Amino acid sequence: DADVTQTPRNRITKTGKRIMLECSQTKGHDRMYWYRQDPGLGLRLIYYSFDVKDINKGEISDGYSVSRQAQAKFSLSLESAIPNQTALYFCATSEQTGGNEKLFFGSGTQLSVL
Amino acid sequence: DAKTTQPPSMDCAEGRAANLPCNHSTISGNEYVYWYRQIHSQGPQYIIHGLKNNETNEMASLIITEDRKSSTLILPHATLRDTAVYYCIVRVYGGATNKLIFGTGTLLAVQP
């Protein structure tokens, strides 16, 4: 979805390097999420934020940190990358109305840690 | 949030209806059933959701059993472009666990 933009699309880095993945959205949504996807494991939630001052850990937050710089921006950092953080990373936004929370995903960032 | 169980893979002939089952036997009364799909490493896409009534939109129909312990996503006339991984998710509306947790889904292969 072009309204949720992730940069970079692909990144190759070395073990021990600090990496930042960026996500920006033009949907005006308060809620933003970071997921990672590994083959055979589906999508797993890393961190999520319900507004600018709110940060919450997901299922697999160890080794990651996030920053919600503004309503439209949510960055994911790997302070010291390791090979098992090689994965496809997705950012998503949502707006909850009534009983519906519909997620809108970016195109993903393929990260390879050598 | 309740867990869901889906078959890992299914096949369907092009033009036929695709019926994707999901088991959520521990679902609570205030949990919604959501379906998303992911086409080959793209970001997942919302399809439909429901609480207890059957739902239909331009993409699919959702049939939820009366006891709410299982549901079926129906793609009425599957096309090759419907080949994707389909995720069934249940989640509570509101509360501290206000997030969607994805499982491994069902890989639907639509055959020509």
How would you describe the overall organization of this protein?
The complex is a heterodimer of chains A (114) and B (112). Chain A is mainly β and 114 residues long. Chain A is 0% helix and 59% strand. Chain A has strands spanning 4-7, 10-13, 19-25, 31-38, 42-49, 56-57, 65-70, 73-78, 87-97, 100-105, 109-113. In chain A, the strands form 2 sheets. In chain A, strands 2, 4, 5, 6, 9, 10 and 11 form a 7-stranded mixed beta sheet that branches. In chain A, a hairpin with a 2-residue loop joins strand 9 and strand 10. The radius of gyration of chain A is 13 Å and the shape is globular. Chain A starts with a strand and ends with a strand. The relative contact order of chain A is 0.34. The model of chain A has no long low-confidence stretch (mean pLDDT 91). With 112 residues, chain B is mostly beta strands. Chain B is built from no helices and 9 strands. Chain B has strands at 9-13, 18-23, 31-38, 45-50, 55-56, 61-64, 70-75, 84-92, 106-111. In chain B, the strands form 2 sheets. Chain B has a 5-stranded mixed beta sheet with strand order 1-9-8-3-4, with no helix packed on it. Chain B is globular and about 40 Å long. The N and C termini of chain B lie far apart (37 Å). The relative contact order of chain B is 0.34.
Features:
heterodimer; A: 114 residues; mainly beta; seven-stranded mixed beta sheet; four-stranded antiparallel beta sheet; 11 strands; 59% strand; B: 112 residues; five-stranded mixed beta sheet; 9 strands; 46% strand
The gist of it:
The complex is a heterodimer of chains A (114) and B (112). Chain A has strands spanning 4-7, 10-13, 19-25, 31-38, 42-49, 56-57, 65-70, 73-78, 87-97, 100-105, 109-113. Chain A has 114 residues and is mostly beta strands.
